[in-house]
């Protein structure tokens, strides 16, 4: 009998904790409570579906807004209502509270019933938020399409909407198939080499989301091919040696407060770079930043944006594409 009970408890334990799965329990108030395991291995008990959510990244805001109405997010990243940096401006404009790097006390003042924090954030704020009694779910800061899917699944579980998470991933995969069908028609000898020139000067090498996206877009990431890893700065000498077919330039201007035109002048008029084919032949692409740096479900539109930069109108797309099953 004792052995049977032990086996039963083991099965129940796996149902609760295995693979981040939820275990639903109906409370006396009629709410369905559940437990999840976050990316840090922490077990979070949710008394019911959260109604006041705060996330600490634009990407996680976008994932949540793909599953829930705007009324469920009590604050949104300050860049998400910037048409240059965001593909969900209209949704972001419906949320009055804008945040950038809020303190634990500021987050507490918003009275959230769930806080979502990417794992690249300062661990101190996670501890502080938990010390203040808040429910905190840590998720991966995705570095690939596969990790975006993983994060969507986790956040869907965190908000008690696993079915919606599955619908989001299905739409991502459908878009990726559409892109692949077009990319597969491009002969290997005509595949382009691109280099991302970012204001984040150490971004874009091996291990970055951009490097993974290039594979789906059917282009060669020049920095990755040269062995440069994410976190390493692409020196001018290395850029000259790569001599990419296309340069993808930054568009970020932080609501018009950053002079990106000055950056263009300084970079494109640099005497040492005038031998670059992309500069000589003006193969310069200014992307929609809301797609290019997007590591939410909308990363698929970033992939299409890279393909558009390399191969033209066959990959054209509107400026406000967004995968959503929120009904809003």
Automatic annotation (TrEMBL):
InterPro entries for this protein? ABC_Transporter_SBP, ABC_transptr_periplasmic_BD
What is the protein name for this chain? Putative ABC transporter substrate-binding lipoprotein YhfQ
Source domain of life is: Bacteria
Question: Which biological process, per GO, is one annotated for this protein?
Answer: cellular response to iron ion
- Which parts of the sequence belong to the Fe/B12 periplasmic-binding domain? 52-319
Coiled coil: which residue ranges?
A: none
- Write the record's keywords in alphabetical order, separated by commas: Lipoprotein
Checking PROSITE patterns in the record gives: FE_B12_PBP (PS50983), PROKAR_LIPOPROTEIN (PS51257)
Lineage here is:
Bacteria, Bacillati, Bacillota, Negativicutes, Selenomonadales
Gene3D superfamilies assigned to the protein according to its UniProt record, in alphabetical order: Nitrogenase molybdenum iron protein domain
